[in-house]
Amino acid sequence: MTTVRKILFAAVLASSCGISASAQTFAGFHQSNYAGVYGILSNPASAAATRYKWDLNIFGVDAKAGNTYMKITKQALFHPPDTFRRNQDYFLDTAARRRQNAWEMAEIMMPSVMYSIDEKQTISFIWRIRSSSNGGNVPTEQVNFFGNNFPNPEYKNQSFAINHAAAATNIWHEFSLSYARVLRNAYGGIWKGGITIKYLAGVAAGYGSVDNARFTLNTNRSGSVSSGVMRYAYTENIEHWNKPSLSNLKPNGNSGIGADIGLIYEYRPDNDGFGDYVGDHWNPASDDYQFRIGFSITDIGRIGYSKAPTNTDLALASESIDPYALLYKKNQSIKQYTRQLNSLFTPLPTDPHFKMSLPTMLHLTGDYNINDKFFVAANLDLSLNAGPNNIYKTYGMTQFMITPRYEKEYFGAYMPFVLNHNGQADLGAGFRLGPLIFGSYSLFTNLFRHNLDHADAYVALRFIPFGKNDPNGGGIFHMRKRQLRCPANSN
Q: HSE on the CB side for 441, CA within 13 Å?
């Protein structure tokens, strides 16, 4: 496979590592009243007036990947053959009229903690290891040219044009401090606000793009490129990537600053401006709302990287080129291949550094409390940097999700329905059994599909204290506030 094909098609064949790149991690559970530290990931304001005095995450993993061009059989996915056979192990959607895309997003949630200073304000420390990749936006005809048995005689003497195509990947550590508080406690409702500041420690990144390219396949051994510019770069440690891959997840001196901000309003028809209610646990009024709406922007920021020495931009014009010279040879290192590619085209001056933007997202959320056990949540997640203007980025998936859920103290069940901007619809499930959380938003749809083009799953383990340990903040404290009818402090 060539780097040209990697840039135009690798993302299309990409699979594995988490749609969500998708917009939402731990989908379905993230809006739960028991989400604790996991709710902060999509809206830092969710930690204000939480039902937990503190919440300790031990470990969590969320992974998603998919594409719109290739489907693979379950048999081949779980029992890979030595050689994948088209129309038997995998199928290409060569007749589609849409643009083709691919994505992955994954994260490891490391030990993290949330602590409620009081019933209005909360601080948290969160450590995540994340990866995000996506690419495409390429018309199916061009994807067929590179992905369908390249160089394919079927396309002899045909000319193609690519105005813009790009792919990118980014892996980084994220060390975050988050603060949330009740901004206003008024008659009929409360306002919450939150902010998360992140120190970003980059592990590895890379990108590639092709712009204004015009090319023709004359024969199997001859082609021509009349115009075009390729831009590519990656961090040098990718040339020395070790196996297993987890051994490579160390920060490499690449740094940046990021942030999340959020706001939540909860409508509480029984909130008369007086004190809290009697309850058996910390802050028993934490989910005493009829409905709530939220707004947040996540992953504002970018990370600076240095390019590998062989990286350069390329002017693609060439009157005669052997298509097989573009192919990536078996056991060839990426360094060897980039040198080969550079020799085929004209190198252009390039900056030795690049800054990779995070997958910035806008989240609009709503949650309706049916009877304190049954809830219905809705999310609209909009990618804010998915356009063609900046190639130094990964971006999230625009999608809409509705999640009915049932929740009690030690048990929760979630059924997310997701529709993404590629037109892919999914129905899944998630469960909370005490400290254990697991699920998949594509569980049911993939269960009944014979061939898969995307999938996801998550699992997490937490330590959650439920009782009140502070004798001055416990039961009689709540009883006195109620009996005295002291007005709630709106500060």
A: 31
Best CA proximity match to 295, nearest among 322, 263, 321: 263
- 472, two tokens: 């001055």
Show Cβ contacts of residue 173 under 8 Å, excluding neighbours closer than 6 positions. 127, 128, 129, 130, 200, 201, 202, 203, 249, 251
Do 232 and 308 contact (CB within 8 A), yes or no?
A: no
Cα–Cα distance for residue pair 264/400, rounded to 1 Å: 19
| Rounded percentage of the chain residues whose pLDDT exceeds 90 | 63
3-state secondary structure of 81: coil
Measure the CA–CA gap between 292 and 39, rounded to whole angstroms: 14
The torsion region of residue 149 among left (phi > 0), alpha (psi -120 to 50) and beta comes to: left
Query: Could you tell me the CA-to-CA distances from 334 to 30, 38, 150, 328, 433 in Å, in that order?
Result: 39, 37, 20, 9, 45
pLDDT in tens, 135-175: 988 899 989 988 888 888 888 888 889 899 999 999 999 99
DSSP strand E in 29-98: where? 54-67, 70-73, 90-92
In this structure, the number of other CB atoms found within 10 A of the CB of residue 141 comes to 14
Structure-block tokens of residue 159? 């000319």
Q: What percent of the chain has pLDDT over 70?
A: 86
Q: DSSP letters of 402-451?
A: EEEEEE-SSEEEE--EEEETTS-EEE-EEEEETTEEEEETTHHHHHT-SE
Preceding amide of 80 cis, omega within 30:
no
- The string of pLDDT tens digits covering residues 215-263 is 999 988 899 999 999 999 999 999 888 777 778 888 888 999 999 999 9
Strands (E), 248-398: 254-267, 291-306, 313-315, 318-321, 346-348, 353-357, 361-369, 374-383
Q: What is the pLDDT of residue 325?
A: 87
For the chain, the structural domain boundaries read 3-484
pLDDT at 203 over 70: yes
Give the Cα separation of 371 and 70 in Å (integer). 44
3-state secondary structure of 240: helix
- Token pair, residue 418, equals 């997701």
- Contacts by 476-484 with C-beta closer than 8 Å and gap 24+? 478/275, 478/276, 478/277, 478/278, 478/279, 478/284, 479/278, 481/274, 481/275, 481/276, 482/274, 482/275, 482/276, 482/277, 482/278, 484/275
The SS3 call for residue 28 is: coil
Q: How many CB atoms lie within 10 A of CB 469?
A: 10
Burial of 157 (0-12, 13-18, 19+ CB in 10 A): exposed
d(CA 320, CA 487): 82
pTM: 0.87
Taking the C-alpha atoms of residue 365 and residue 298, their distance in angstroms, rounded to an integer, is 13
- CB contact at 8 A, 129 and 176: no
